[in-house]
Amino acid sequence: MILSLAAIAQATPSPASVPGANVFTSPLLLSLVIWVPVVVGVAVATMPNPRGRYDVLMKQIAFFTNLGLLFVLWIAYNQFATFLPTMQFEEKVTWLPAIGAVYHLGVDGTGMTMLILSGLVGLASVLASWGVRERVRSYFCLLLLTQACVNGAIVAHDMFVLLLFWGASVIPIALLVLGWGGARRESAVWRLVGYWGLGTGSLLVATMIVYAASGSTSFDMDVLLKAGLAPRVQLAVAAALIVAAATRLPLFPFHGWARDVYADAPPGVALIVAGSASRLGAYLLVRALIAADPDASRLLSPILAGLAVLTMVFAALAAVRAVDLRAAGGYLAMVPGGLTVFGLAALTPLSIAGSILSLFSGGLAAALIVGGCATLSERAQTRSVQLLRGLAPRMPVLSWLLVIAALGLIGVPLLASYPAEAMIFFGSFRSQPAGSFAVALALVLVAAVVAVVLHRILLGSPNPDAPAVSDASLGEAWYLGLLAGALLWVGLFPGGPKLPGTEQVVFDPGLLNVMSAGLTDIASAYAGPNPASSP
Amino acid sequence: MAPLAAFVLAATSVRTRRSAANMAMLGAVVALLTSMLTAWGLTKRSTPFIDTHPYFNISVAFSGPTNFQGFGIDIILRVDHLSAIAMVVVELCVIGVLGWHRVMGRAEPGPARFYALVSVFLFGALGALVSRDLAELFAFWGLAGGTTYLLLAHRWSSNDASRTARVALALPFLTDVCLLCGVAVLYSRYGVQDLNGLQPILHTTLGTGPKALAVASVLLFVGVAGRMALWPLQSWITRTSVTSPPAASAMVQAVWSVVAIVVLYRLMPVISASSAQTMRGLLYACGAAAVAGPLLALFGNEPRRVIALAGTGTAAIGAAIVVRGFQDPGFTFAVAGVACVLAAAPARAAAVMAASAFAAAMRTDDMAEMGDGWRRMRASSSALLVAGVVLALSASGALAYAVESQSRLGFALGEAVLLVSIAVLRVFMGVATGPLRRRRAFEPDRVREAPTEALGWPYWLAFGGAVLAVASLVSGWMGFLDGQRHAAAAPRAFGLWAGVSAIGFVAVWIAFRVSKDGALRASGALGDWLDSVVSSVIETLGRRIDAPTAAAVARVGEWIYAGDSNLGRAATTSGRLALVLARVHASAPALLILVAALLALAVALLTPGLYR
């Protein structure tokens, strides 16, 4: 269906950056990544499925829809003009003229990076959900709607549209947790709705304050976020945005939903929450705070840095005390978010660039650790850290994938998190020296905790009282392998693989190159004074 | 690239023990041949071979200082004489250990995993040796560090191995992060992370003070010292020396000492630019580590732990000479410290392998229960003796060139040499002499020499170390390594430092001849005392820091959960109340005020802390 939709497409003006680009183009690429999951989700929901006869077909539809979306995103990624600072693949249709809401979509390098992340995590979440047996139709419908909401929030270039997708994403996730979650699903859902609702409310407040204070007649980000505001208003808006981001990412002390949702959501849902839906928090900070309001950003950067450090330290210490493996994984999944926000709080061009890359690498690492812990718990038939021991020889594939996830969390070279971490550190030592040392120590703490947790469950002699275990199935190995492979690929070729001896990229223009489109516009406001121009 | 190719092949297609071992060996041998070819090429030229590949390069800003407008990491491979020799030494150590492990490590689990990790480790180590870009250096360094942990934690089913391997992840990661922070501090001030580009601008860049340079220097030094396992950062090597596979322990000790000393030598121009006080502090730290490491080797009777500590003493002597060499601008013998460690590295690996052969044959890690090795395991005893002697004498040449015997540094390093000599000969005397007593479930007559195929490797490595130790006495060798001309040291100086080692040997020989059991009982008692002190310190730290912190985190976590639950309940109740009030047609403003007041009251009362 995606192919047929895209076949009616016309050529975009984007130049060919790699061999094969422009083979397949569409001016509606961004609408496709939002509305195709919605249409397919609705179709799945309305298909007759007597006594679960077509369960496998539903799963296949969801899988191929995600595969097709990833293919479309791959095309968009390859066609992305890395030298253009402006939004690309823009779509602009007047929607509610009375209030100035416009259906305005567009992506810059940051958005494209997030879309690729969302596509990868979406595909992985479908594979992770292959074992769902109850109400399959509803499950995959909601999963596709979740992905549509996440994609919509990424590509929205109108605050009203962003708010819509941002708030809407809570509903399918909450229903998925409530319908297919574990024993504490009700508590998890209430917390999720409460915290994310608070975040949505904060975003609504921030949007309305700007809308009212600027006297604007449009929600378009190009207009709204560039309006001149009084310093106090800027500060209030920035504080509201930070609360919205902190509830979503999550940052301490707005992390109340994380333990229960990561521990009790089905693996596929936990994966999509950890991998892409929660990254929207940091993405919002980049788009609406860092890019739009340098003065308020500078003023609030110590608070952001403090929250980031506290989040990393708290997550590590809480993970080591957790007796539930999935809760421990959930806490560890908070770590990349802390690092991302710290890079943003450092407010240097390089640290901001590192944070944007960290959105991608952190999302993958968080999804991998959450998914790995969930799969391991299922395969080991228990989540109790006290019972799980000596699993590595009996489940080597899962153990290796968990080790890669752990190494991804702490930023070991060859994984995508290393360039991100290096850029954040290199960029932040000038503006936030104390915070940088604190984050470095927090990372050491995370490494120690990861060592303790992994050794506790993977190494040592097996527990004879524990239930029987089995290694990951092919589907589980594939979905975790997909995430680990993406981490490794970007770590090996952040600038894209090149033909030896040439600058000709092959197959992949390089995530860093794509990410950097539009980055200079965002980050230049934070470049230090030029010594040559100073008196 | 050869080790990386070997890893890829091993990871994708190799399953059996023999093919995995062959693949890893092939990668190491190809790397050795190419390194030797490069070294041979370098004998004809004075300039290094340089190859540059961009890893990534992005523009991050279009305003501000030009050196901060973009960022990139280039893979700059620079092979000079020192790098080439260091690569050869590293590869020889890995080949020797692999050859030994093929036979002695047959019982180890997961052979394919082990050999594949060795290939990655070798790749990372070689990459770190030839890196000039500091970010690139850290990438290779971190890669080798990650595989080091996986190698040391290789025995997945062993509780002891998994417990001690935690230290092997956390402690070196701390020092690795220090290295990263040091590089980051330098970049944040100068906007350059290439060593060639950094050195000329260290004192000419506006707005950069000596304080930042001093902080960066200390961080860089700590990063390197951690991987060199200098005291007090040695526990990741000593605690895993018994529980990890012997081949992994031997390889890690040998290879990391070479990599770290070469990297320290490369970083010294930056570190020495900081301040005289910083340099003095680092020299004191090296001197203290050189004495404390081998001194700790006298505590306890585990032979592999003793060798590891003696090895850290030698590495600290080398580091001290390197730091001393850059302290004085006119002083040109810094490279002697590197030559010392290059000679000691193969001997360390050989000694660990020989000691492991004893531990396996006598089924104990306590020297008090070992003995009679000279009669029962003559070849392994000889290898241990040769390796120990080379280890003890490896610093003689460097000290003769670089240190005045009557200076304070000379006194400290002389003491270190004496302690290293005592430590290594103590191991030999402990395992090779005296009776081998019968124990429960152990019959001395069943002790056999290691298999013939494994016997040669420690000898070859010890022989290689001896050759390098002899070379370190020759000024031409120093000249080849650093490309400078050096005056020859006085033969009397060599004799003096070798004499210090000889005194140590004689002292141990006398002590063990008088009473082997008494000597070992004394060191055993000291070891027990040290263990109890360390345990009590760890317990105190756990009680004073770990437990309260964990309790605070738990309290905060629970407080937040309790708080948001109560908040949720309050919100629900207020909503229901609002519905009830709405039904009685109350006016909207009054309703809102009432709900707000009730909500505030509920939150105030129900939130933990206020209510209680």
SSE diagram, text form:
The complex is a heterodimer of chains A (535) and B (612).
Chain A: H1 2-7, H2 29-46, H3 55-79, E1 88-96, E2 101-107, H4 109-128, H5 136-155, H6 159-168, H7 170-180, H8 185-213, H9 221-224, H10 231-248, H11 256-264, H12 267-277, H13 280-290, H14 294-321, H15 325-332, H16 335-346, H17 349-380, H18 396-410, H19 417-431, H20 433-458, H21 474-492, H22 511-515, H23 519-523
Antiparallel strand pairs in A: 1-2
Helix pairs in contact in A: 2-3, 2-5, 3-4, 3-5, 4-5, 4-12, 4-17, 4-21, 5-6, 5-7, 5-12, 6-8, 7-8, 8-10, 8-11, 10-13, 10-14, 11-12, 11-15, 12-17, 13-16, 14-15, 14-16, 14-20, 15-17, 16-17, 16-19, 17-18, 17-19, 17-21, 18-20, 18-21, 19-20
Chain B: H1 2-13, H2 17-42, E1 49-59, E2 70-79, H3 81-104, H4 111-130, H5 134-152, H6 159-190, H7 195-198, H8 210-228, H9 235-238, H10 246-272, H11 276-296, H12 303-327, H13 334-362, H14 373-376, H15 378-393, H16 396-402, H17 408-432, H18 452-471, H19 475-482, H20 491-583, H21 588-606
Antiparallel strand pairs in B: 1-2
Poorly predicted residue ranges of chain B: 608-612
Spatial order of strands in the largest sheet of chain B? 1-2
In which range does the helix fraction of chain B lie?
over 70%
Could you give a short account of the major beta sheet of chain A? 2 strands, antiparallel
Amino-to-carboxy terminus distance of chain B:
65 Å
Distance linking N and C termini of chain A: 62 Å
User: How many helices of chain B does DSSP assign?
Assistant: 21
Strand content of chain A: under 5%
How many DSSP-defined strands of chain A?
A: 2
Structural class based on helices, strands and sheet pairing of chain A: mainly alpha
Number of strands of chain B: 2
